[in-house]
Amino acid sequence: MADYDYDVLVIGAGPGGYVGAIRAAQLGLKTACAEGRETLGGTCLNVGCIPSKALLHASEYFEAAKGGAMAKMGIKVTPELDLDTMQGQRKDAVKGLTGGIEFLFKKNKVDWLKGYAQFKDAHTVEVAGKTYTAKNIVIATGSSVTPLPGVEIDNAKGVVVDSTGALELSSVPKKMVVIGGGVIGLELGSVWRRLGAEVTVVEFLDQLLPGMDMDVRKEASKIFKKQGMTLKLSTKVTGVEVKGKKAKVSVEPAAGGDTETLEADVVLVAIGRRPNVEGLGLDKIGLERNARGQIETDHDFATKVDGVWAIGDVIPGPMLAHKAEDEGLAVAENIAGLTGIVNHDVIPGVVYTQPEIAGVGLTEEAAKERGAVKVGKFPMLANSRAKTNHEPDGFVKVIADAETDRVLGVWCIASVAGTMIAQAAQAMEFGATSEDIAYTCHAHPTHSEAIKEAAMAVTGKPIHI
Ligand code: FAD
Ligand code: NAD
Question: 57 catalytic, yes or no?
Answer without folding.
Answer: no
